[in-house]
Structures are given as C-alpha cells and as structure tokens.
Amino acid sequence: MDMLLEALLSILTLEGLVTILAGVTAGLFIGALPGLTATMALAVLLPFTFTMSPLQGLMALGAVYMGAIYGGAFTAILINTPGTPSSIATTFDGYPMARQGRAYEALAAATIASVVGGIVGVTFLLLLAPPLARMAVVFGPAEMFWVAMLGLTLVASLSSGSLLKGLLGGCIGMLLSTIGVSPIGGETRFIFGMPALQGGIELIVALIGLFVIPELISMAAQGRGALPESGKLQGGAGSAVMRMGKHVFSKPINLIRSCIIGQIIAIIPGAGGNVTSLVAYNEARRFSKDPASFGKGNVDGVIASESSNNVMVAGSMVPLLTLGIPGAPPDAIILGVLLMHGLRPGLDLFTQTGVLTNGFILSMGFAALFLLPVGLMGGRLIHRIVVKTPFYFLLPSIAMVTILGTYALRNSMVDVFIMLLLGTVGYFLRLIGIQAAPIVLGMILGVIAEKGYVQTMLAAVVDPIPWLRLVSNPLSIVLACLVVLSVATTLLPGWLERSGRMAKVDRDEEQSP
Amino acid sequence: MKLATTRWVGSLSMLAALGMPGIAFAEYPEQPITYTIPFDPGGESDVTARFQEPHLEEILGVDVNVNHRPGGGGAVGWSEFQNNAEPTGYEMIGVNIPHIIAQPIMRENAGYETDNWKIVTFFHTTPNALIVPKDSPFESLDDLVQYAKENPQAVTLGGSGTFSANHLGALRLEREADIDVTYIPFTGTGPLPAAVQGGHVSGIFNYSMLGVQMQDNARVLAVASEERVPALPDVPTFKELGYDIVGGAYRGVAVPKDTPDEIVNKLEEAFAQTNQRIAEKQEPLGFVMTDITDEEVDKIIQQLKSAYQPILEEAKANQ
C-alpha cells in the first residue's frame, strides 16, 4: 500500500500530468487516422522517450496506447472506418447513429465507455495480476484453435440477413489470409511469382480497403450532401453527454459484461485487441432484449465495443508485466522499453521496482480519465468539422489520408494497390449483401486457427490418432463445447421457426441499406 | 505520418545528391540517411536500430531515419532494396543471417540474392539457447538427449519461424546428437514464453535474450556460442557439452553493391563506435556484441552457408 501511495505521488507532478495529457492527445489523433495503428503510434513516439526517465517514458507510452485505442472510435463512428482494428465493432452501430444525426451521442457514449473500460482494466491489473497471469499460459495451440473457431461463430451474427452470405464473406477472408509466406512451414502461397506478395495482405490494408473505399464510393454516388448535423437534437452537446452518461450507468449489465469479456480476451496471448470488441459486441446483442435493433444504431453496441477494447489496454499488461508475454501487438513495444531500461518482467517488477511499475499502471488510469475532457472536446471539434464539410470536400480528403496511411503502414505502394483493389471488390460484394465485417473476421481468425491446428498436429505426430490432441485437455473440451453451443443458439431458433415448432417472432425483414 | 514524410524527404534529397555526385561524395554524409528495418516494430532488429539511431546521428552529424518495410520474414524489404536502392550511402538496410542465406535457397523466388549487396558490418549476434520449463524433467542437455534417443519424435521443441536460426539450431542438434525431435514453429519470439511456461512444448530453441528474460521461470540448458554468454555465466555452451553447435542470428547492415569504399568505411567506423556506446545496455540483455567487417563478413557467410546448405537441401527434398 505504501508503494502504491509512493507511486501515486511520483506521477502526480506537473511534469507527470503534462506527459500523460500530451500522450493521450497524440495517441488520440494518431489512432483516429486510418492506417496508423496503436502499434505504430508507439513505435513512432518511442525515440522521444529515450531522453526521459524510465517512469516518464512508460507513462507517455501508456497514455499514447490508451489514446490511440480510443481514437479509433472517431473515424469508426463518423465515416464508418475503424481507425484501429480494435474498433471494427464500433462501426456497426456507431455509423448508423451518425447517419441518423446522432453522431455526437455515439461519440459521447464511446468516450464514457472507454473511460470506464480503461479504469476497469487498470483496477484488474493492480489487484488481480498474478492470479490472472496464470490463466494466460493455459492457452496452448489446441486451445487457440478452438478460440478461433469460437470467434468464427461470430460470423453468424455479423451477417445481417443471410447466414450464407456471412459464411461466404468469412471464407473469402480466410482465403485472403493464406496469401504470402505461411505462418508455419514457411512456404510461399498464392504469390503468383511476385516477391512483393511474400508479405501477404496486411490486416490493416484490407480493413481500410474494405471499410473505407466502399463508403467513399457510396458517398460519391450521393453527390452533394453531408452527414446530418446533431444540432437539431434537443439540448445540444452538453445534454447529449449527460443523457449518454445516464444511459450507460443506468443499465450497467452491458458495461460490466463487456469489461469482463475484454479482460479475459486480453490475457489470451495472440488473440489481442482485434477480437475483444467483436466478441463483446456479439454478446451484447445476444443478451439484449431487442437484438434486431443492433446494427441500426443501438448505442449499446458502441458501448460494448469501446469499453471492452479499452479494458484490453491495461488488461493485456497482465501477462506482459508478470510473465513477459505480450497479449497484443503494441505490448511488444512496451516490452522492448521495459527491457531497454533493464526491467525484467516477473514478480520482481511488482516488488523490487514496485514504485515504478505501480506508477506506470496508475498513470494508465489517469490516461483513461483524461480521455474524458480530451475526447469530449476533441470529439466536438472533429465532429463539427466532419458534419460541416460537404461530401465533395470530405471525400477527397478522406481518400488522401487513407492512401497516405496505407502507404505509411509498411512504406509500400503494393499495399496501396491491394487496398484500392480490395475496396473496389468490397463495394460490389456489399451490393450483393456480403459485408466487410465477416471478411475481416475471417482474415484475423484464419491465421490463428491455422497456426493452432498445424502446431497441434505437429506435436501429435507420435500419437496414434493425432486429431484427438485437439480435445485432449479439459480447457480445449470446454472451448469445443462452447463452439457447439454458440452454433446451436444461432441456428436453432431459425430452424424451429421454419419447422413450425415455434411461433414466428415478429422481426422486421426489411434491411436498412 | 512521420514515416511517410521522412521517406519523401529522403528521396527528394536523394535526387539532389544524384545531381551533383562529386560534391556529395566529397563530404559524405551531408543529408539524412534512411535506415530500413525489414521487420515489424518491436522486434530485436527494431529495438537495436532504436538504440543505434541517436548515436549514429551524433557521430555522422546527420539525421538517421529508421523506417520499416516488413513482410515475408524480411524478404519483401530485401528484394525491394536490392532492386531500387541507390549506391549513394544514404540508403541502408538491416540484414540478418541465416535469413539471407536460407530464404534464397528455400524459396522459388525470394526476390533477392544472398551476396548482391555490400554488407557493412555485423554488429552483434544472438546465439541460440535451449530453454525448458522450470518443472521440466530435463535437468541437463544429456537428460534431454537420452530421453529423445529412447522416444523418437516425442520431444517437442518450439522456436521462432521455419528454416530460421532457431529451426536450423534444432536441426543441427538432431544431427550432432543423432536424435529425432519434433520442431514446432511459432510466429516470432512473442508466443514462446507462454509455450514454455504453459508446458505446451518440451522446450524451445530461441535466442540467448529470452534465456536472460526468463531466468526466473525457466531453465536454460545450453547456449550455442563459442564462449559462455556474459549475461548467462552459469549456462554451458553446446561445445563444452560435446556438441559442435555454434550459431544463432547475426544482425548487421548493408548498402547497395556499388557504394564507394570511403562511404562504407565511414559507416563501418560509425557502427563500431555506436556499438561501444550501447554495449553497456545491450550486453546485459543477452546480446553478444561483434564488429565483423570486410573479408570477415564473406568468411562468416561462406562458413555458415556450408554448414546450413546440406541441412536446407535435405529439408527441401523432403518437402
């Protein structure tokens, strides 16, 4: 406890608070730009921390991380483009809200959810790090295979309307993920003799292409126009924030569930933040009284997505600080900084250098708190700019930022071409009802499933029946059962309905465009 | 954004340099230098480049811009560099052994050749280390070898990548000890600590750094260096234990083939000085600092090529 107090005092200096504020702001803007991810935000700002003391450097990076994950929500809501992969699920309801003139409401809800998520993550990290860390190592290759399978069952709920089209999208995504050097075995696949394709299709590149370009094409199709303003909402911005605050806290179940999901997934190494918000969104919808309203501007979807991904920021530090296992890609950079300052992950970090470690953790809590003012103010600014700008100015600006962002990701023109190509194909796929989300989900999970399956099979080479290794330990059996359960709860109602054993629930069959 | 603009600035200044080559070479360096890392940020190569950056800038007196061109285990960046980079000394790229030896052998078209550039220096090596979980029944390398002899393929060894330094290390152990183990590739070093601590594999072949990092929750059985690694004084080398296995990853930096000698020498000097300054920070992490230049570079590459080639060709034939 003394250590915690000492740590608190060490960050509550003017210098400390300014560092956190600057970090959050920088992270927010980098995260909001499509193509510039949290990982890149950390990598770019890393050299600036060399001149700082270890604590100040870690504080700055923790704040940037927190800000960047939150910043992804801005573009997700305003232009249907996840700024970072962790805010894919925010687009599902955030953008429909923006189209209904409720953009600022969505931003306010995202901000409040992020702040709560960030603080919950920090609390978990402070209080439960050692016991939670033990959970991180039980996920071996077989378990990861089932986790990926469980994730793929999300396709059913992400495909509004037709399950078949959703599955088709998932398959396209998994096929795209096989391009390049295979993760296990190292063969080059589907590169058609072009060395540049050895790198495969980067997730972010596909994400930008599939989400942004179709959106730009349909904006262009509308010609004149802009996002509806929220000014006509009763009471203006201030009351929107109050209303959202009341909404979030009056029904805390959604928030609590999303935070717990965020924490659990954050400590599974390799699943990372890309999946947390999708799972939380899916569960929010499954347990909602009105699942049909999701995808059409239900603010609970935004809350689930944004709270869970900000829990992940501090949550993924659990295996990192205790065991040296990076839970999400940006954590690898934080690990590098720790090692650079001679800090070895392990329990020593919490005892011998406890002041420093606790200071770092607490500073992430402050960073989460700072999201509130910075986010609400920055959000108003960005929001005003976006809604005041007609499409014919907005569109070329977004296109340029998108192309620059894609190029900057790996300094690659090939990536830009892939992005544009996927975007164009994505537009036509969207016209026939295949959405971007299942494709991206297939890309994320295809790799995880492949690695898990091949590694399990390799290790089982001496077993008489190798595939039994997939269900040889209790955890993988539990996960396998969850997969079956998840598929059943999705498919059964429809099947019962068709066979006439259950009265047809009233569901509006009309799909909004 | 910074990455994109630095690249522009880099190429614009490159154009300027081409316009007046005589002057440009006379006072090299006088423009920012681009230092490309063909891997993702956060890895060993990237972290080292970040260590070097401020010192190189101070010694050379110009900006050194680290940027990333990841993909295909380095191959995307390397093939682009060999095809496009100008021999002006303002473009350099990180190179790694055994990657640049193994990829051109194993792949149909890696897009680059092992020798088609001028390697300035290999500034450090990270020897392989054999690491087992703390509660592993294998107290020593002999235990493991003994068990593997009695139970072919039952010992599973994880490592980073396929036909990587780790994989080649495991293959050499198989040959030297005449055993048959199962190598399980993971993507990068990141997932390996979890694989060891969760007991998902019998052990891992990875670099000495991970051995240092995991001292508290794992056991390092042996390291594949000539002499013991300073940061792991109690761990024997494979050589001491009677297995002739020396190897791991060598990291260095290369410039295009026709780069003038004065420039190469200047860079050599700058990297050597930088190494001295950062040794204090890098050595405790498990890096072994080196200064391999000129003919020694060719010697090392030839030596490792002849060690790896038969293993790789045999593996390729079995694919």
Chains forming the largest contact: A-B, 63 and 67 residues
Which architecture of the largest domain in chain B per CATH? 3-Layer(aba) Sandwich
Give the tally of structural domains of chain A.
1
| Biggest pleated-sheet summary of chain A | 2 strands, antiparallel
Share of β-strand residues of chain B: 15-25%
What's the rounded overall pLDDT mean of chain B?
Answer: 88
Query: Which strand-content bin applies to the residues of chain A?
Result: under 5%
Order of helices and strands of chain B: HHEHEHEHEHEHEHEHEEHEH
Q: How many beta-strand segments of chain B?
A: 10
CATH topology of the largest domain in chain B: D-Maltodextrin-Binding Protein, domain 2
Protein name (chain A): Tripartite tricarboxylate transporter permease
Domain DUF112 (chain A): 17-441
Keywords (chain A): Membrane, Transmembrane, Transmembrane helix
Transmembrane segments (chain A): 20-46, 58-79, 106-129, 136-157, 163-184, 196-217, 260-281, 318-340, 360-379, 391-410, 474-496
Could you explain how this protein is built, in words?
Chain B: Belongs to the UPF0065 (bug) family. Chain B: Keywords: Signal. The complex is a heterodimer of chains A (513) and B (319). Chain A has 513 residues and is mostly helical. Chain A has one domain. Chain A is 72% helix and 1% strand. In chain A, a hairpin with a 6-residue loop joins strand 1 (180-181) and strand 2 (188-189). Chain A is globular, with a radius of gyration of 22 Å. Chain A starts with a helix and ends in a 15-residue tail after the last helix. Chain B is α/β, with parallel strands linked by helices and 319 residues long. In chain B, strands 1, 2, 3, 4, 5, 6, 7, 8, 9 and 10 form a 10-stranded mixed β-sheet that branches. The interface between A and B is large, with 63 and 67 residues.
